[in-house]
Amino acid sequence: MAFLNPGGTVELTVAANEKLAINAIDTTVVINYKTDVVGMPPVWYPPTTNTVEDTSYTTTAFSSATVVRLENKGIRQAEYDTGSVPLITSEVALLAYDSSVLRVVAAASTFDSITASLATGVGTKLTAASGGAHGLSDAVCISGGATHIYITWASGDATDGFYELLDCDTATDSAVIDLTYATGLGTPTVKKVTEAITLETITVPANSVGPSGVLEIEALFGATKSTGDKTIALAIGGQTLISKNIKDYATFHIDQTWFNRGSTLIGQATSDTVKGLSTTAAAAITYAATTAASLTLKATFETANEVVSLHAYKVSTKF
């Protein structure tokens, strides 16, 4: 392992079948390779990935010995190493953190039309499809705390996302959300029971988990304890890591560490939710650390008017 100061340049030889790893958190490192042409001065040329900026990066193994020049263009010291498994400092990169509470419910029926709220100037009124009952109540969705439903919009100006409920009790087939009414908002579709609701999406950048690195995920949930199923799912790159029905619990804490094994990440089996002993063999995520991927937290409800709260989450990597 070696360091490259801001403004510094270094030339090194990477042996055949070895890799080069660079830690350029908070700085920028430019990479060039050297080639010798008989009778001419040496030529430096950029590889496909020739700039590493505010991240970590590991090359594939070199097919032959190669002279490499690194230039630190940033304001912070960079790190580099070569070898079959190059080692650099376990730099922690915080990818996402949020401790604001997101309180969510699912309706029994979706909504398919909107009008101005009955309360003048306050919110937008949603009407349930075919007069269906939404199954929501003020006692849970208003008095219980600021509660949200997820809406997608078609053919209009409104933005897909979570909207706070302002009224559920005026009518069984309508509800008012915290959105200023205007013509052209579009046609709403509200996530309802049995449909997975994405609570959060976090991007895991390419090369953020190094050859000796880990991906760490923590999330804390609260829920209505009842007989109705409430399933929490954690996935990365579309592959489910955890799917847990928490209907019998008031809180649920995900705490997972996944270790880089090149083309996969290895960790506790997907049926396990906490660190510790397990009766199930280790599981692999078919996620290539060299490719960006989306990590998602989702909730699915069996019963309307029951709550899942995402209290906090943290996603970080160690290179």
Structural commentary:
With 319 residues, the protein is mostly beta strands. It is elongated and about 85 Å long. It has three domains: 88 residues, Jelly Rolls, CATH 2.60.120; 130 residues, Jelly Rolls; 84 residues. The strands form five sheets. Strands 10, 11, 19, 22, 23, 24 and 26 form a seven-stranded antiparallel beta sheet that branches.
Secondary structure elements and their pairing?
Layout (H helix, E strand, L loop, with lengths): L1 E3 L4 E6 L4 E5 L4 E8 L7 E3 L5 E3 L2 E3 L7 E7 L5 E6 L8 E7 L3 E3 L6 E6 L7 E5 L9 H4 L6 E7 L6 E11 L2 E4 L9 E4 L6 E8 L9 E10 L6 E7 L2 E7 L5 E10 L4 E3 L15 E3 L7 E9 L6 E11 L1
Antiparallel strand pairs: 1-9, 2-8, 3-7, 3-9, 4-5, 4-6, 4-8, 10-26, 11-26, 12-13, 13-16, 14-15, 14-17, 15-16, 18-25, 19-22, 19-26, 20-21, 20-25, 22-23, 23-24
User: Beta fraction of the residues?
Assistant: over 45%
| Helix/strand order, N-terminal first | EEEEEEEEEEEEEHEEEEEEEEEEEEE
Q: Strand count, sense and closure of the main sheet?
A: 7 strands, antiparallel
Mean pLDDT, all residues: 87
Distance between the termini: 14 Å
CATH architecture of the largest domain: Sandwich
Catalogue the unreliable spans: none
Structural class: mainly beta
Shape descriptor: elongated
Give the tally of structural domains.
3
Count of β-strands? 26
Q: In percent, how helical is the residue content?
A: under 10%
